[in-house]
């Protein structure tokens, strides 16, 4: 089985979707076989890959209304299981299923075709985010590099710990990824000082970080990964550096 990674943060706008898309594209560039799964009814990942008006989506997959092979679509050389605005209705039904936290794991257990499966979570700790933690072997928490960004982080870590204890002993934190980090500015330095004094974050940050780069916003808006849209940008460099660190960490363990 490949590496199953949940990209999770219960706050919105922390860079989850941008990370799933561009980390996936970086891993694909490194010749890995990648599957992206959109678990957010806001469908940002799905829309950014132009997979609109899709019938077979992740909600149907989880409720066994659709076979996995029929839910898989292609974009930028990656396989993608899209979401749908209807997912909210499906979540209601999923909540009434026995073993509701295990539905995604059950589906992913049946496939062995991928080196990396990246799961894009909604901005909440509801059933779909828990499904992704139960299915994952690692999770990444993207976080905006700003003062107090870590407020709420303890809750994410505690929830993951409970999932690990009760449902998925394999689950581990891959790391916290700084997004929109500006290391050279006075503010960036202040944030770093603040962070290094915070026990919650110590030794958990990836060395790699993603700088502020408008190209990342533009790429998503134009429906492309940063490697297609602006391969020489800071964003492309940062996501590629991050992908290399992630792969190297796997090779170490
Ligand atoms: N490093 C970055 N530099 C500039 N803008 C970014 C960066 N990362 C993400 N963004 C933008 O920030 C917004 C929120 O990011 P997104 O990935 O959608 O967050 P989430 O999925 O956690 O809600 C989007 O408009 C995205 O284009
Ligand atoms: Mg998102």
Describe this structure in words.
The protein is of the alpha/beta class and 253 residues long. The protein has one domain (3-252): P-loop containing nucleotide triphosphate hydrolases (Rossmann fold), CATH 3.40.50.300. It has 12 helices and 8 strands. The protein has helices spanning 16-29, 44-48, 58-62, 68-71, 87-94, 103-109, 127-135, 153-166, 186-196, 214-221, 226-229, 234-252, and strands at 3-7, 34-38, 73-75, 78-81, 116-120, 138-144, 172-181, 210-211. It has an 8-stranded mixed β-sheet with strand order 3-4-2-5-1-6-7-8, sandwiched between helices. α9 (186-196) links the parallel β7 (172-181) and β8 (210-211).
Structural class: alpha/beta
Q: Kindly report how far apart the N and C termini lie.
A: 16 Å
Average pLDDT figure: 93
> How many beta strands in the DSSP annotation?
8
- Give the CATH architecture: 3-Layer(aba) Sandwich
The run of helices and strands is EHEHHHEEHHEHEHEHEHHH
Task: Point out poorly predicted stretches.
Answer: none
Helix fraction, binned, reads 40-55%
Q: Strand count, sense and closure of the main sheet?
A: 8 strands, mixed
**Tally of individual helices:** 12
With strands numbered from the N-terminus, the spatial order across the biggest sheet is 3-4-2-5-1-6-7-8
Rounded to an integer, what's the Rg over CA atoms? 17 Å
**Beta-strand percent range:** 15-25%
Q: What is the highest CATH level, the class?
A: Alpha Beta
Distinct small-molecule ligands in the complex: adenosine-5'-diphosphate, magnesium ion
Could you give me the name of the CATH homologous superfamily? P-loop containing nucleotide triphosphate hydrolases
